[in-house]
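Technical appendix A lists one of the benchmark inputs used to test multi-chain prediction within the project. The record comprises two sequence entries:
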Amino acid sequence: MQGQTVMADRVNLLRNKGAHNRSEALIRAILLLFALVSILTTAGIVAVLLQETVLFFREVSIVEFFTETRWTPLFASKKFGVLPLVNGTILVATGAMVIAVPLGLLSAIYLSEYAGERARKVLKPLLEILAGIPTVVYGYFALTFVTPLLQRVWPETQAFNALSASIVMGFMILPLVASLAEDAMSAVPQSLRQAAYALGATRLEVTLRTVVPAALSGISAAFILAVSRAVGETMIVAIAAGQQPKLTLNPLQSIETMTAYIVQVSLGDTPQQSLAYKTIFAVGMLLFLMTLVMNLISHWITRRYREVYE
Amino acid sequence: MNGLFANENGRFDPRLRQRLYYGRLFQAFSLAAVTVGLIVLSVLLLDILLDGYKWLRPEFFTQFPSRFPEKSGLRSALQGTLWMIGLTVVIAFPVGVGAAIYLEEYAPDNRLTRAIEVNIANLAGVPSIIYGLLGLGLFVRGLELGRSVLAGSLTMALLILPVLIVAGREAIRAVPQSVRQASLALGATQWQTIRHHVLPYAMPGILTGTILAISRAIGETAPLITIGALTYIRFDLKGPLDIFTVLPIQIFNWVSLPKAEFQELAAAGIIVLLAVLIALNALAIVLRNKLQIRW
C-alpha cells in the first residue's frame, strides 16, 4: 500500500502536472469523504443518543435511573428505574450463553481438531446458516414452537417468557462462537500439537491441554462478542420474552429487555415530544455503552493476548 | 510418587486404554454438539414449512394485509422491501466501495486511517436497533424525511456499510500488486489504474459481499421498527417519500396477532423471506465460483 503510493507519486512527477493531477486529487478527496462516513456514523449515533439523553436527565435524576426498581414510564404513575430492563437483558443473555458457550466451543473443537477436511467443508457452512436466519424468524420459532414445549414440561411457564427467548437466542449465536473459536484454534501452529503428541499425549489431551489454552485469548474474545450480540438482540425478545419489566431471576416469567422496550415504545402511539419517548434514547445510550465496552474488551483481548508464533 | 501415570505399585502405567476411551467419549460429545445445532436448524425449517405452506397461494403475493386472514397478503411488504433494498444499494454501494478503495489504495499509514479502521470494526458490533435510533434522530426528524422508505434506506445503508467496506477491502487486496505496477509503468495515473485495472478484477468479490450485505438488510427488522415503518399498509408504494412496510415487519405484525391463522400467515411470510435469502446466497456462491479470478 505504502510503496505503491510512493510509486504513484513518482509517476506523477514525470508527467505534466496539469488537469490530471487536479482531478486525481479531487477523486482522492471524494474517496476520503466516503471513508469518513463511518466516523460520521459513530459521531451521529453519539450525538443523537446524547442529545435526547441529556434532555431526559434534565427531568429524571440519574440516581433514580440507576437505583429505582420500577420501570413504568408509560403508566400514570411514572417510575424511571432502568434496573428491571437491565435485569431482563442480562437474564436472557445469560441463558443464551449457557447454550451457546458449551455447544459452540465443542462444535469448534470438533471442526478444528476432529473433523476431516471434507466434513468441515460441509458442516461449517451448514452451521453458519443458523447465523444467517433473520431474527424475526427465531422470534416466531421461540413463540410458537419452543414456548409450548416448555409449557408441557413446566405448566407454570407464561406465554411470554425469558427462557424460550434464551434458548433460541443461544442457537442463533452458536455459529458466532463456533466460528470465531475455530479460527482461534486453527491458528495454533501444527508444531505445538506435534510436540504434545511426541510427549505421548492423546488427541483429547492435545486438544484440551495444548490447543485450547493456546487459543484461549481468541476463544474468550469470541465469548465476549457473543454476549454483546445477545445483549443487543432485539426481535427474539420483542416477540417471545414479553413486555413486563421486572426484577426476577425466574426464566419462566414474562420479562422485558432494553431492546424490547425500545420496540414497544416505537410501535406504540407515544407522542414524540413526551418524556416517555425520550426514555428510548436513554435506554439506547445505556445499551450502546454496554455493547461498546464489551466489543472494545474483546478487541483488546485479541490484540493484547494474541500468542505470536514464529 | 502417586502421580497420574502410576499404578498401585507406584510403577509407570500410561493407562492408555482409559485415556483413549475418554478421548472417544469426548469426540462423540463434540460431534453431538455440532449435530444439536443442525437438528435445531432442521426442526426450525420444518416447523415453519408445515405451519405456512398452505397459505402460499398466488393471492398471498398480490393482496394487501387485511383484518381477515384469507384476504391478507404480502403486496405492500414486497413493494416496501424492493424499494428499500433498491435505494439502500444505490446509497451504500458507492460509499462502501469508495471507502474500501480509499483505505486500500490511498490511505497513508497515519492516525486518521487507524481511527477509521478501528471505527469500522466497532460499528460492525453496534446493535442494529441503535442504528434505528440514529435514523430516527437524524433522518426521520433531523432531515424531516418522516417515516419514509428513503429514511429507512438511509438507515439501512449506514447499517450495512461496515460489511460492504470489509468485503470490498478484501476483494481489492486480493488483486496482485503486479497488475497495478504494470499499469502505472505504462503511464496511467493512480485513479486510471484503479478504475480500469484494480476494480474490474475486484468486482466479483465486491459484488459477492454486496449481495451478502443485501441479504442482511432484507432480514433486518428492529431498526425499521424504531424509525417507524408501519405494520399495516393498504396502498401501493409510489415514491421514496411514501411510508412503507417490509417483509420482516409484516411477519412480526402477524406473529403478534392472537388468531391462529395469522400465525400461519407469519410462517408463510417467513417461507417467502427465507426463499429470497436462499436465492441471494446461491447467487453469491455462483458469482464467487464463476467469476472469481485465482492468481
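Chain B touches chain A through 96 residues (CB under 8 Å). The longest helix of chain B spans residues 16-52. Comparable benchmark entries are summarised in Table A2.
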